Amino acid sequence: MAKRKKNVADKTRNKKKESQKKINPFEVKINRQKQKIMGRKISKHDRGMPGLSRSKGIQKRKATLLQEYNQRFKNNKFIDKRFGENDTSLSLEEKMMKRFAMERAREKTNKFSLNDDEDDLTHYGQSLSSIEKFEEPEASEDEEDSGRIDANMVATEHFGGFLSNSNYQDLGGQKQKSWKERMEEVIAKSKKEKFERQAEKEKTKELTEKLDAEWKDVMKLMSSNKRGQEEQFQKADDFDIAVRELKFEMKGKATDKLKSEEELAQEEKKRLDKLEADRLRRMKGISIEEEEEKKKVHFSADDLDDNFSLDAQPRFHAVYKDGKMLKDEEDDDDEKDSEINDDDKGEDSGEDDSDDLGNVEEDYSDDVGNVEEDEDGGSEEDEKDTEGEKEDEEKDDVAEESDDESDDDSYKDIESGEDDSDKETSTESKTKKSPLNLTEIKKIMDDARKELPYTFQAPKDYDELLSLLQDHSEKDQLTIVTRMRKCHHVSLAEDNRQKLETLFSCLVQYFADLAVQQPPQLRLMDSLVPHLYELSQGSPLAAAQVLVDQIAERQEEFQAICERKGGRGLYPALDTLMLLKLVAILFPTSDFRHAVTTPAIIFITQILAETSVKHERDVAVGLFLCSLALEYVSLSKRYVPECINFLHGMLFLASNKDPNKYASVIPPFRPVGKYNDLLLVTKKAKKTEIKMLKMTKVLTMEMEEEELRNDEFRLSVIKGCVALLSEFSSLYQELPAYKEIFIPVLDMLEKLPVNNYPSTLQVSVQDLQKAVKEITSKPRMQVSMPQRKPKPLKMFEPKIEEVFEDKKKKKAASKEENEMEKMKHKYRKELKGAMREIRKDTQFLARQQLNEQMEKDSERKRKVKEIYHMLSSQEGDFKASKRTKKNNNPF
Length: 891
Known about the structure:
The chain is mostly helical. The protein is built from 29 helices and eight strands. α19 packs across α20 (540-564). The longest helix has 74 residues, at 815-888.
C-alpha cells in the first residue's frame, strides 16, 4: 500500500504553529474595569505580563549595570573596536568584506605613499620621470660640437697634471689673493656702498624739499579752484556734519584708578604735614639751601661708594689741614658776606637793631612753643588757600629747581677734569642766589606766624575748642574745623573715631552758643551745618545721643519754669530753636518713631501747648515752632493738634471780638484777657506789600517790645499764619476729621478785619476760606461694615457637556502656556520613570551584594569545615601513633 503524501499547505501550517510561542496564562495580568464605557479606547496598559517584563529588565541590568559594578575597582579595560564585531546582524563574510573595503580606502588617502601614480616628483623644477630617460642634453649654438676633447685638457685635467705645475695662474687667471687682501676689498666695498646710500639719501631729501616748495605754489591754485567749486555745491547735510564730528572726536584715554576714601585721606594728611613742616621752617627763618646743607652726607676717603641709591644726595669732600677740617670756599664766602652784612647793620642801626633781633628771637621761641602745643590733626582744607600759602609753595618749587640744578652741576664736576671743575664752580658762584638779608628773613618769619597751622590736635573738651576758634575770623574757623577732620580721619588711626565724636559734641555746643551771641552768627552757623552732618553720618549713634542730651536738658529747664509759674512756661531762646532746626537736618523725620526726632517734636508740642502768648516775640517764636512742626510731619502727615490750636489762637488775637459773647478758644489762649487784641489791626494799611518776618531782627535779646508793636509786624504775622494754615489744610485734607479740625478756623477767618488788610493778604485769606469750604462740603462716607460678595446659591442641575472626557476641562490658554503645560507633564512623567528605574537598579545591586556576601560566607564555612576536618584527622593520627608507641613499649 502506497504512503500518503502530506500537502505543502499542511506542512506550512504546522510549521507556523510550532514557531508560535505559547503564553502562560498565569503570567498575564489584566486590569479589569468596574464599568464599561462606550467609546473609550482600550489602553495598552490594561493587559500586560509583569513577569516577562521583570525578567527582561533583570537581563538588561546584568548586561549593563552588573558589568559596571564588577569593573568598579578596575582601571584598565579592553574595548573591542573591530568593525562590526558587536553587530549581530552581520555575518562573518560581510564583516570581512567591509573591513577589507575600509583598508583599501585608508590606503588611498595616504599622503606619503610613493607608489601613487598621480604624484610626480621633481628635482630643481624638473620631473624625475623625464630625467630618468637619459636623453642627450641640447647643445647651444655658441658651443662647438666637435665630438672630441682637446688634448691639452686631457693633459692638464684628466690625470695629466701630476708632473707639471698646473694652477690657476697657468690657466690664464690672476694670482690667488691672500686673506688680508680679500678683507681689504670687502671693507672698501662696504664703504663704497655706504657712501652711495648716503649720497642717494641726500639726493632724495633735496628732491623732496624741492617738491614741497613747488607743491605749496600748486596748493594755492588748487585751493582757489576748490573754493569756487565749494560755492557751487550745496551745503552739507546734518548727517555729513555728524560724520565729520565723529571722525575728529577725541578718543577716551586710560586714567588712573579711582582712589578709595582711605587713600584720599592719607594723601591729604601727608600734604598737610608737609605744609606744616614748611611753615615751621619759615618761622625759624631757615631757608631751603640751609636745610639741604644740613642733609649733606659726609664723604670720607675710605668710602668705597658701594651703596647705590637712585636719589643721589650731594656730597662734599672732607679736606684736613693741620688737624682741622677745611670748609668749601663757597661756605667761607657766605660766612664772610653774612658777617659783613651784620657789621653794616650794626653800624647803621646801632642798638635798635640789636633790640629788634632780641625781640625776634623771643617771639620765635614763644611761637615755636605755641605751635608745638597747637599741632593737631585736622580736616578738609578749603580749596581757596591764602595767597601767602601759594607764594610759599612757588618759592619751594623754585628752590627745588635750584637744588636740582646744583645737583646736576655737581655730577658734571665728577665727570669732568680739574680744569673743567674750576670753570663750572666759578659759573655756579655767579649764578647762585644771593643770601637773604635780615629784614627779608624777619618778614618771612612774620608771614609764617600769621598763617594758620596746617595740623591741629582734636579738642578734648569744649574749652579747648573755644580757645582754638575764638580769636579767628569765620573763614579761619571753618578752615580749622576742616583741617581737624582731615588729619583725624577714621581710617588713619583707631582712636580717631572717638576724637571725632568728641569734636561733634563740642561743635554742637559751639553751634548753640553762636545763636546766643549779639548779633547771632547765623552765617557761621549755616557754614557749620555740613560739617555736623558729615560727622553725624560717620557715627550716628554718638551724634544721636549728643542731641538727645541737649534736648533733654532744655526740656528739663522748661519743665522747671512751668512748675515755678503755675503750669505756664516761657518760649525758648534762639539757641533752642536752632537745635530743633538742626535735628530736622541731621536725622530723618518721616519715621514712625525715632530716637531723636520723636523727642524733639514732643518738646515742640509741649512748648506750644503750655506757653501763653504775652508779647510780640512769643508770637514770632510760636510761628517758627509751627513751621518746624510742619517740616517734621510733611512726609509722614502726622496730625499735630497743638499747631492748629496755636494758629487758631493767632487768628483769635487778630479778629474782632463780640463783647457780649465769649469766643471758643482752647488754652493757652483765654477768651478774656489783657493780650487778646495783640494782633488786631485797627487802621487801614497803606502799603500793599507785606514783608516776611526775619529771625535775626525779631528774636534778638536787645530788641525792645515797643519796636514790634506796629501794624507792619501784625500784618506779617497774619500773613505767615494764613500761609501755615494753607499748608496744614492741604496736608490733612484726607483725614476723616478734617471738617471738625478746620471749621473753627473757618469761623475765625470770617471775624478778621479784612478791610484793613492789603489786597494781597485779602486774596490769600479768601483762597484759604474757599479751599476749606470746598473740602468740608464734600459728603463723607457713612460708617458701615466691610462689604462682601454674596454667596451664590448651590445649583443642583448638572452641567451638560457635549464631549465628556472624564477629566476636568481646563480653561483655554495661549499657545505658549499649553506648550509649557505639556512640557511640565512630560517632565513629571520622565521624573517618575527615572525614579522608578533608579529604585529598581538599587534593588538589583542590593540583591547582587547579598548574593556575593552569601557566597563569601558559604565559601568561608566550607574552608573552615575543611580545616576542622584536617585538624581532626591529624589529631587522630597523632593519638594512634601515641597508642602504638605505648603498646610497643615493654616497660
